[in-house]
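1st attempt posting a full record on here, be nice pls
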Amino acid sequence: MKKRFICMLVLFVFLTACKSPLESQPEKETELITTLHASWGYNYRDVEELTENSDYIAIVNVKESESFYYEILPKTLYTVETTQSIYGETDDVQLVFTGGVFEDKTVELSDDPLMSIGDSLLVFARKNDDGTYTVLSGPQGRFVIEDDCVYSLNAVDKQLRSANRLSSNIMVDGVPLDDFISSVEGYLPNVTIATESQTVQCETAE
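the predicted structure (as tokens):
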């Protein structure tokens, strides 16, 4: 009996030590996230069309969030700091997203995950009647900034890749931030943006 107990203990320790990093992650990361699915009303063909249809284009930093239910839909209102205005508003604005965090449960769209406090993003958004803003076509109008380079959400977000959905035909994979802003500026001939010229080496997302 003692030998059997020792063997079982050794087997348990071996199995525990051989767990992969994914297996050792907290279960709540998968069990307490509910994903919704949506069909976007319109997919923009490129960054130029995003620019032409935006009331607000800016580099933002996510400061605060508040989740609530509007009728039966979960919503989150994000307050973002406009760190660099490219077009439109120069002060803080509020972005509305579908989905929310309620106590210990997260509800979000499979191809448009919620933002996190502290995220640095470049967004293309349209103003709503109540003064808030909505990012154009979900993931299409949101770009991640890392190491002074720009990436479309479908280039860097694992959840979008696993969803295996053609939620966006716009792919931006490691474009220097200054170059990206210059391109947007070219689509807005009446807007002048002063940026320092610098060379940035960007890595494409793996």
